[in-house]
Amino acid sequence: MSTPTVRVLYIDDEENNLQAFRASFRRMYEIYTAISAAEGLLILQNIDVHVIIADQKMPNTTGVEFFRSIVNTHPDPIRILLTGYTDIEALADAINHGDIYRYITKPWNDLELHNSIKNAYDAYKAKIDLRNKMIELQKTNDELNRFIYSISHELRAPLVSVIGIINLVKMEGLYDSSGEYWGLIETFSNKLDYYIQKTLQYYKNAKDVPDHSEIDFKTIVNELVELHGFSDRDMHFNVSVNQNTTFIGDAFRIEVILSNLISNAIKYQKTNESNKTVNINIEVDDLEAQIEINDNGMGILKEHLEKIFTQFFKSKMHHGSGLGLFIVKEALNKINGNINVSSNIENGTTFKITIPNAK
Hints:
This protein is of the alpha/beta class. The protein folds into three domains: about 5-110, Response regulator (Rossmann fold); about 145-205; about 215-355, Histidine kinase-like ATPase, C-terminal domain (Heat Shock Protein 90). Helices cover about 45% and strands about 20% of the residues. The strands form three sheets. It has a five-stranded parallel β-sheet, sandwiched between helices. A five-stranded mixed β-sheet has the order 7-9-10-12-11, with helices on one face. Strands 6-8 form a two-stranded antiparallel ribbon. Helix 5 packs antiparallel against helix 6 (about 180-205). The longest helix has about 60 residues, at about 110-170.
């Protein structure tokens, strides 16, 4: 395999140094030389150079000043400074600000300079490869955004229409006219809608940067209770929200957390329970919001408590997607919150959540 051509520009105001550099490295690299910073800039405007070497002490500008002047216009070439005298402050400043990759003292050692050029070219390739990967990643991200948009709009639209038709069938008293078929259609339609919504929640939670807006917990909880209460009219909710101060937080993620926990409390009730109950207690102060959601449902086995926040974990007693509590945990991680759970199969489950007040 052929060795890639490495294009090197050397700028020095001494012709002897330029000739010596050409003689030493012309067989290894594609060499360009300039006797001044202005001439070097002209070469850069016409040649795609990989490595630039400049002498520090030149009449009209120093090497560091030249490198600093081309950072924005020619950011890709890797810069090496040659210096024949010790100027620690200038070198340290140039290195700390990223103006140079390396410096070498004059007169240079051919092997040392050769290795520096090779390493500089490797750094150049790494920089270009990283940029190309970022472009590919952005392209992939854009395609994923379009795919998610397609799911949320094009896929859900006909599904919502199907659910709407089922509701019309119920209103006209025809729901039981075809045996169990309408019931099966409704069950699978709702399940598909549920999976789509969980996919969208997972995607948005993983992607979006946490925002900061004013949170009214009473309003959020009442809206969620009204929304999820439709799935079981026999469910009784006890809601207590004590918020006498402003709470600043991520509205989307807080709603996702509460929505998933309230939905689960309803979904995993005991079928023979005559007094289905969900208790929601929220205490808000200047430091944090403490949320407790308790139900008297079927509970969680002790050996499963450490696994319930794992992606796609399902127990034999619970037939969800295995995403709800995973999304809750991920959302809390994004906003520096934490969650604890206690449960048994006799008395139900209690989740305790703490979310810091960002105000």
